Amino acid sequence: xxxxxxxxxxxxxxxEPLMTLAVWGSALLVAGAFLWxxxxxxxxxxERLSWAFLSSSPLNAGRTGGIGPILVSTLLILGVAVAAAxxxxxxxxxxxxxxxxPRSRFGRLVGLSLDVLAGxxxxxxxxxGNAFFSVxxxxxxxxxxxGLTLACMVLPILIRTAEASLRAVPDxxxxxxxxxxxxxxxxxxxxxxxxxxxxxxAGLLLGVGRAMAExxxxxxxxxxxxxxxxxxxxxxxALSVHIYDLSMNVAGGDGNAYASAxxxxxxxxxxxxxxxxxxxxxxxRRIIAP
Amino acid sequence: MIWSKHSISSPSRTDARLAGWxxxxxxxxxAVLVLIVLFLLHESWPVLNRxxxxxxxxxxxxxxxxxxxxxxxxxWATLASSTGALVLAGGLGVASALFCRFYAPPSAARPYRxxxxxxxxxxxxxxxxxxxxxxxxxxxxxxxPGASLLAGILILTLMILPTxxxxxxxxxxxxxxxxxxGAAALGMSRSGTILRVVLPAARSGIIAGLLLAAGxxxxxxxxxxxxxxxxxxxxxxxxxxxxxxxxxxxxxxxxATGEHRAGLFVSGLVLSGMIILLAVxxxxxxxxxxxx
Lengths: 290, 292
What we know:
The complex is a heterodimer of chains A (about 290) and B (about 290). Chain A has about 290 residues and is mainly alpha-helical. Chain A is about 75% helix and about 0% strand. Chain A contains 11 helices and 2 strands, in the order ααββααααααααα. In chain A, strands 1-2 form a two-stranded antiparallel sheet. The model of chain A has no long low-confidence stretch (mean pLDDT about 90). With about 290 residues, chain B is mainly alpha-helical. Chain B has one domain (about 60-285): MetI-like (MetI-like fold, Orthogonal Bundle), CATH 1.10.3720.10. Chain B is built from 12 helices and 2 strands; from the N terminus they run ααββαααααααααα. In chain B, helix 4 (about 105-120) crosses helix 6. Classes of the chains: A mainly alpha (about 290), B mainly alpha (about 290).
């Protein structure tokens, strides 16, 4: 007994500092890697950033020149994705929260398919987008195919966040509007959707952020062409694809790749930060309102 | 939600019409998954029908133009890189979460958590760019050629670390305070409390996070493609250049036709199967969702 107690004490004396060391070491390692990455991006990319870089066309396969047409293509692809995914996502979320019984079979089926869809890797969305939108529907390598592929990809995140923000609206409000004789359609339009709006927008922004960071799903749906697109049926190169192409296929493209990466991260931080702010703001109101 | 049980009055006609439209939209949303599975099967059918599933594992090499469809070397590369990354990110991620909850002074915990969230938001192609220009030359100085399984593992580790750290952090936060008070009352040391009380209590949440991270690692394409060298071979050391299943699809899809293209869709099918199993397991385990 005495021996065992002493053993435990010695072990404790060794274990305690060992664990502290391991935990602090890991944390410092992670922080170091992060700072290294961000510092490197700033170091190599910041000097090239300018208004001219953002607005001019890429020259010499992207080694020099800017990213103007690429930003336009990126925005168009995102626009298509949002235009296709938002009506579908919002409608599904409204149906799941406001019209179906919580454990209805249809609701569970839709939920399960969304969960599985969320697990499908992005390269597989690329394969599907190529086979369905580009080849089967004949859209070819175009902004439209890329945007629609991304729409499929962000659908689960849109629906789940919209569902969560609608569910967070207190049930009293539903009862109140029913007592006032409002139809569900009117209650949705005038009370529930406005009340859930900041959560809905936050979810939308998260989806946009996810779509913007995506590369693998776009390589063989929206393609590589770096000219200014003249319609949605043109191929357009997204910012992430531009970074990939410059660093892998263009010798001497690293400088502009870093600058583009900096632009991409800046945009993402802006989008995700706004989403986070809105989500917190929405939570606060949720606590005060009822 | 409350209404859905039953309404006393009959529902108005606009409501019924709205419900109809919404059901169509929800049906479409659910159909996306069915469509994906159907198209993967349809596109891979020509080659599956002719040679069957087994040849994809037993063929000696991947030369689709000569009728050889061996996915095994790339399957090994995918498994090796994901396992390596999961081991590293598992350790570092759980340690990060412990750091935030138990070790860091409050003034450090908040910025640290914010940093991990930022790390989670960095797109994979940027990780790839950094790995290609910083990590690969560094490894090459030590063990040429540099672009290798090791580079792939390290980049993947950085990418999936936030997933592990954030889910573990949430799981640790959910451990009842009474457990901690009890451990303190028993005079347990900090390390004892963590190892004997906190981690066992948070186990299922942590495991769900690890499963999610494993799914991300298996499905990741760009970052690994950019740093791992892309030679089709079974890896025998950490410094061998390898090509993962995902990278193979991305590299060859551009020019693949006929059975070659069908073979790529088969690898997509295999990959989705593995990852969907993991995702469902993660859902069952801790209710962690991969899309939030």
